[in-house]
Amino acid sequence: MRVSGKNESMSRQPPTRAALGIGLALLAQFLALGQPQNASEDQVKAAYLVNFAKLAEWPRSALPDGSSPLLIGVSGGDNDFLDILRAVVTGKMIGTHALVIRSISSEKDMNSCQMIFFRTSEKRQTQAAIEGLAQAGVLLVGEDESFLRLGGMINLVRDHGSVRFEVNPDALDRSQIHFSSKILTLAKASYGSSGATTSNSPIGAARVVERGVAPEYPEIAQRMNLKGTVQVQAVVKPDGTVREVKILGGHPVLVDAAVRAVMQWKYQPAAKETVEIVKVSFGPQ
Questions:
Q1: Span 194-282 CATH architecture
Q2: How many Cα atoms occupy the beta-carbon half-sphere of 100 within 13 Å?
Q3: Which of 19, 45, 69, 273 could in theory staple to 100 by disulfide, Cβ–Cβ 3.0 to 4.6 A?
């Protein structure tokens, strides 16, 4: 996954040094020291949303120079959550941009936002909404276990009594919204610390992956600080779905996670069934 860096071909708006320091400190406190006992889950999620807005490097097309607001849309949010989020953003600015919270329900509303938070209550509408948001520069954040698989970019999850976040690197890359590597290393290891790449198949031409699912980094592998690559053979049907996955090699602790992930992959359609070789790499960042 690409991370923050100098790029002469694209004008971005980086966060200020002060915002970066405050945001990293808050995220580190949440993740390493434990979230405040007197903070509700909704308050913690609201704080995450504000800090994602602070720490993102937005493409200029999404957040141009000037005093236009940075809109955070909430899909499916009740009034209580909206009130909490508005209280958190009160008086806060992202550079010259005021943070504005808006309850959204239509595609037109979504297209005017820089960030959209999908509440679990909107699960049925989430996939259609994500597919309709084809333009770059909209950060999609959710709170459902299937959100990243649907094409979401950042997901807020409960983990041992705390709220953490996980990322979909491919979706973030497509959005042209960038975060520094220091921020991404705070992401929950189950999504952000493992990657998957495909190699050319020895049987026929390699097919293009339309939708890849990142593997879960097993908890026991995290405790062991285990790194490794699993190689599997995927039998892909003409419609692009995976019919069967065979293990060719890899650490026994990692192979099941690799197989489960690749079984959910979707390739581009082809005239006949093909066999693809997939290498899945695991390791803490």
A1: 2-Layer Sandwich (3.30)
A2: 13
A3: 69
Compute CA 157 distance to the chain's CA centroid, rounded to the nearest angstrom.
12
Written as tens digits, the pLDDT of the chain (285 aa) is 333 333 333 334 444 444 444 444 445 444 433 455 567 888 889 988 988 888 888 888 888 878 889 999 998 878 899 999 999 888 888 889 999 999 988 877 888 889 999 987 666 677 777 777 756 688 999 998 888 888 888 999 887 677 888 888 778 888 888 887 666 656 654 343 333 333 333 333 467 787 878 888 888 877 777 777 888 889 999 999 999 999 888 888 888 888 998 999 988 898 899 988 888 877 654
CA distances from residue 240 to 132, 150, 170, 211 in whole angstroms, order as listed = 22, 17, 19, 10
Contact between 63 and 13 under an 8 Å Cβ cutoff? The reply is yes
Closest CA to 74 of 55, 95, 53: 53
* Domain residue extents for the chain: 12-188, 194-282
